[in-house]
Amino acid sequence: MHPHPPPYTKAPRYSGEYYYEERPRGGNPCLKCICCCYCILFFIILLVSALAFYFYTVYQPKLPHYNVEALEVKEFGYQPDFTLTMAIIVTIKAENPNKAIELTYGEASSMNVTYTDSTLCSGKLPAFHQGHKNTTIIQVELKGKSQFGSGLYEAMQENEKNGKVPLLVIVKVPVEVLFGTRRLKQFNVLANCSLIVNNLKAGKKAEIVESKFTYKLSH
């Protein structure tokens, strides 16, 4: 058997002196560090994916549902100077179908009712907390006074004769998501509700002939 080579080898002799070269031991430390970082990153991704899968499988989170239930006209007047004054009460139903997620609706909200891109009245939703598996009915009073051309008013009157006045309710409200006592995320709900009502007579509830609710979430 041959003996193990010494840890140092003797280099060729030059000018009467010897130089020793040390043999490298082990692997590249930079490569080891990179491999270790990749392993940690892979473990974190795997852990987050497992937690997300568990959360969605067990708690089955769902988006909340909204709908305009009623619209009551309190005031509606058209002046000779083409000024339209309007006050209505809009009843909204908000449903939280989740069994473990609660929602908190913030104060910085806005709500507008428009007719062919002309704002009729505006207001804001009240701030409130909605528990899990909860349905909340909200009544919002909206008021407005705006310039309304005679042609636009005549078109609205014609719509009312046919029993089909198109309105658009635009809502923006900040919502905070809570899981138990833990705050998860805050986002804005941007909702559009296209309505067709039969009339806008003061002192009467407008019958909602058709409604279509669409909304999206933004950060």
The count of strands amounts to 13
What is the H-and-E element order? EEHEEEEEEEHEEEE
- Give a short account of the largest sheet: 7 strands, antiparallel
Count of helices? Answer: 2
N- to C-terminal separation?
73 Å
CATH architecture of the largest domain: Sandwich
Q: If you compute it from the alpha carbons, what radius of gyration comes out, rounded to the nearest whole angstrom?
A: 34 Å
Classification by helices and strands = alpha+beta
| Whole-number count of domains | 2
Share of helix among residues?
10-25%
Describe the protein.
It is found in: Membrane. Residues 91-173 form the Late embryogenesis abundant protein LEA-2 subgroup domain. 20% of the residues lie in helices and 52% in strands. The chain has 219 residues and is α+β, with helices and mostly antiparallel strands. The chain folds into 2 domains: 33-61; 65-218, Immunoglobulin-like. The strands form 3 sheets. Strands 5, 6, 7, 8, 10, 11 and 13 form a 7-stranded antiparallel beta sheet that branches. It has a 4-stranded antiparallel beta sheet with strand order 9-4-3-12, with no helix packed on it. It has a two-stranded antiparallel sheet with strand order 1-2.
